[in-house]
Every structure is written in structure tokens, then in C-alpha cells.
């Protein structure tokens, strides 16, 4: 639960601190919790309409499939779909690293971006 994570983070840090929060999408249920830990919060909205966030011509695909068939289906989709860039989200660092290796093995240029990377990477 994101709300509980945010509360635990703020409660574990010193009371006297400067708080700045940046988010592309901050859900409505977590906003009151965040506001509780800030003094005179300032909200800046870059876009007033979330529909404007989707790039023209961007295609999004979601396939619900059992775990064992995912890699094979992904390979089929990448062979079938026409694209110049793809962003694939996974649950863990290990899955990101394994998927990156699988894509490279299938001759798809790939990079894994995850929390285990250093700032310079």
C-alpha cells in the first residue's frame, strides 16, 4: 500500500526537514497523507488534462497471460508489431535483468533500467 509506505517514510525521518515531492501521477487517496507532512504545500500542474499525456501515434498493449508463456508471447509480439521503441515494465530487478538478457539473446537492442543502477549509469 503506497499510503502506508509514504507515512512510514515520513515518520522514520527527522521531524525538522524540508519536504519536496515530485510525481507524474500522484493518486487522490495519497494526496492528504502527503499534505499532512508538508507546510504550506505548493502544487504545480504541468498539464490540466491527463489525456494530453499520451503521445500522438503511441500504441499501448496489455496482454494477460500465464507466467510460463510470457517470454514466448513477448518474442512473438516483438516480431509481429511495428515499432521503433518499446518500454516493458516488470516487477523486480531480477526480472528486468533477465528480460534484458532474453531480448539481447533474441537480437533486440535492450537496456534494463532499475533501482540497482548507480546514478552514473
UniProtKB/TrEMBL annotation:
InterPro entries, per database record: P-loop_NTPase
Signal peptide annotation: none
Name of protein: ATP-dependent RNA helicase
Species whose genome carries this gene: Phakopsora pachyrhizi
